[in-house]
Amino acid sequence: MNKSLILGLFFCGIVTVQLHAQDPIFSQFYSSPLSINPALAGNSNANWRIAGNQRDQWIASGIEPLNTTSFSFDGKLFKQSRNENNYIGGGIYFMQDKGLSGAYKSTSLNIVASSHVSLDEDDQNGISAGIGGNYSNTFIDFSQLSFSTQLSSSGFNRALPTNELSLSDIKPYFSVFAGVTYNYTTDQSNFDIGVAGYRFMKTNRTALNNPNQLDPPRFNIHAGYQTYINERLVFNSNVLYAIESSNDMYVAGVNLGSILDDEEQPTVLNTGLWYKQGGTVIPYLGLSYKNVQGGLTYDINLPNTTNTLSTLKTFEISLSIHSPERTKRGIPCPWK
Question: Residue 300: beta bridge partners?
């Protein structure tokens, strides 16, 4: 293969190692709730929300970046007439990885249903459960790649055969996932914890006709806490622990929200810091204005660590829009 292809495939490879096979996990994972747990569908302080994330990753200038884009819509579909805290939620979630000038593209579409049940009259204690289905398809355009057998005196000629008989299309597949969360809420604080499982059976996913190349199940454990420090300052924290086969990864961090006005839906300036296993620090800057909130992160790989991806650069942006009508006055939080 030519040099650019080797670097490109190496880039895709290290991203795959970092993000656990075919499941990208955003630095701002809290802004992409349906990718963490289907039970979070409808679990916000609004009737519905639209959320999007865009991430660019690259290892050096001149190397095609890997772009990951996600889009989701979720909300409360039906509320119980005698207790509106009990509801049926639902949502749809789309994600796409794209790299090597379009030669590599991986797309997934997820449909989610959830249910929330209050354990007391004031919904201080509640349990949510969710289930979903996923369709995934990965495409590699081998015609855009160059191989050593295509090298001629005038350079690479892609019209020549690759002589790579093991290459094949990656077959799309369907899978199911499910999760559950518990939350405890008061006027001054909120705590929630949950667990979710994806691909409960190993799924074959190979471009080399290798029957042993499988996507293993993945499990997420997550928790979050929000509370008021004073009338103008809010403390938020969360953690995600992902387990996939022999790999595991955690991300944990805190955010301080500065309330800038006295509106019912206040303007909030968010500044946070997260740490990812392996020596990556993720500063966060965000702003919430009325029913719109956005955030920026840039991963900083610390020197003198065991981080094998120290040259990987990651920039990410998130944007979410909530329904103007809020179901309750919740604690200001970047992921609610």
Answer: 281
Tokens for 178, please give them: 């499910």
Question: Which residues, in sequence order, are CB contacts of 146 under 8 Å at separation 6+?
Answer: 1, 2, 4, 5, 156, 158
Tokens 């899978």 locate to 175
Q: What share of the chain is helix, strand, coil (3-state, %, to 5)?
A: 10, 55, 35
Per residue in 164-210, pLDDT (tens digit) is 555 556 778 888 999 999 999 998 999 999 999 998 766 766 666 66
Find the helix or strand (DSSP H, E) in which 4 lies.
helix 3-18
pTM: 0.83
Question: What is the percent of the chain with per-residue pLDDT over 70, rounded to a whole number?
Answer: 76
- Residue 13 CA from chain centroid, whole number: 19
Percent of the chain whose predicted confidence (pLDDT) is above 90: 51
143 exposure class (CB count in 10 Å sphere: 0-12, 13-18, 19+) = exposed
Domain of residue 78: give its range. 3-322
The answer to whether residue 328 is domain-embedded is no
Give the integer Cα–Cα distance in Å for 317 and 295: 6
Q: Give the residue from 18, 120, 106 showing the smallest Cα distance to 68.
A: 106
Spell out the residues 6+ positions from residue 114 whose beta carbon is closer than 8 angstroms to its own: 38, 39, 40, 41, 42, 43, 88, 89, 90, 91, 128, 129, 130, 131
Tell me if 329 is assigned to some domain. Answer: no
The domain that holds 165 is classified in CATH as: 2.40.160.40
**Identity (one letter) of the amino acid at 219?**
F
Q: Is the pLDDT of residue 113 over 90?
A: yes
**What pLDDT sits at residue 12?**
42
In a domain, 330, yes or no: no
By DSSP bridging, strand 218-230 and strand 214-215 are unpaired
In this structure, what token pair is assigned to residue 159? 């019209």
pLDDT at 16 exceeding the cut of 60:
no
| DSSP 8-state assignment for residue 43 | -
CA 62 to chain centre: 26
Residue 100 sits at the vertex; the CA angle it makes with 98 and 101, to the nearest 5 degrees, is 80
